[in-house]
Amino acid sequence: MSGENTLMGKVAVVTGGGRGIGRAIARQLAREGADVALCARTREETDAVAQELRQLGRRALAQSVDVSNWEQVQAFAGAVAGELGRVDVLVNNAGGGVERETPIAQSDPQRWWRAIEVNLQGTYLVTRAFLEHLNDGARLVNIGSGMGHEAPRGNNSSYNVAKAGVNMFTQALAVEVWERGILVNEVLPGLVANGLDPETKLEEARRRGAAPRFAPSERLKHPDRVAELVLWLATRGEDGPTGQTFSLARRPL
Ligand SMILES: NC(=O)c1ccc[n+]([C@@H]2O[C@H](COP(=O)([O-])OP(=O)(O)OC[C@H]3O[C@@H](n4cnc5c(N)ncnc54)[C@H](OP(=O)(O)O)[C@@H]3O)[C@@H](O)[C@H]2O)c1
Questions:
Q1: Is residue 5 assigned to a domain?
Q2: Residue 6 domain-assigned?
Q3: In a domain? residue 189
Q4: CATH of the domain at 152
Q5: Beta bridge partners of 61
Q6: Is 15 helix (H, G, I), strand (E, B) or coil?
Q7: Tens digit of pLDDT at every position of the chain (253 positions)
Q8: Who contacts 147 (Cβ-Cβ below 8 Å, separation ≥6)?
Q9: DSSP per residue over 120-186, as a string?
């Protein structure tokens, strides 16, 4: 983006960095100079990304972590601080919809709660564990969702509620840490081709020309578009925004 390695010598942490949006963010931050720690449950995926980042000349650490597991999250934070040092950028990206198209009346209570554990409690636990390892002036980005700001089609309430919580967590945290110079913001990706092979998904979407019925103006985008916005937020100066939501959606939210 800048061509000047604006994150050279800095340490970034990306949860859910094994594929999709998180992998794109990890790559983008490393290209800008950051050493990167990433976690997810699937070890082979985070290992592959870490290997790629090392080939760019960066230090990279990958660990298998379920962000809803406090012990695993604490161990990850300790390993990052021990191996890479204090953290300058933390991206809470791990998450996703656990149940899809399920009306509340038919929902399974355990599956419903799981979306809260992964998306909201995970964001809290990772932040809680890393707060003591953050440099003053660090930048935090929470990956939220338009679904946390509206519920246009119903049948997705656990994810709606979890991501709405991420929005309020962003605001509450921003107020608590601004005196340390730490900026905390939320990014709404809009509709993004995710997984290990976003290019194929984009190609298919282009062929079908399909947009979701609930939001006909949405267009599937490459995860790199989200990574660019995260990089922008990660490189703001001390007068940068905090407690805000930045959206790449193509519908009013
Ligand atoms: N794609 C979209 O259109 C879209 C739109 C709005 C918001 N988002 C948000 O963007 C973020 C990234 O999603 P994505 O679309 O890139 O999905 P993805 O391709 O499925 O990637 C999700 C990543 O999160 C990790 N993850 C999931 N549950 C986890 C857990 N309990 N502990 C640790 N890591 C976990 C996954 O790895 P493992 O499964 O191996 O753990 C994977 O690395 C999510 O927060 C999602 O809600 C996506």
A1: no
A2: no
A3: yes
A4: 3.40.50.720
A5: 37
A6: strand
A7: 545 669 999 999 999 999 999 999 999 999 999 999 999 999 999 999 999 999 999 999 999 999 999 999 999 999 999 999 999 999 999 999 887 789 999 999 999 999 999 999 999 999 999 999 999 999 999 999 999 999 988 999 999 999 999 999 999 999 999 999 999 999 999 999 999 999 999 999 999 887 778 888 999 999 999 999 999 999 999 999 999 999 999 999 9
A8: 97, 156, 159, 160, 163
A9: IIHHHHHHHHHGGGEEEEEEEEEE--GGGT--SS-S-HHHHHHHHHHHHHHHHHHHHHGGGT-EEEE
| Active-site residue, selected from the candidate residues 159, 185, 242, 245 | 159
Domains of the chain: total? 1
- Which of 14, 15, 21 to mutate to test ligand 1, by most ligand atoms within 8 A of the CB atom? 21
Q: Is 124 a catalytic residue?
A: no
Give the structural domain span for 106.
11-247
Asked if the structure places residue 66 within a domain, the reply is yes
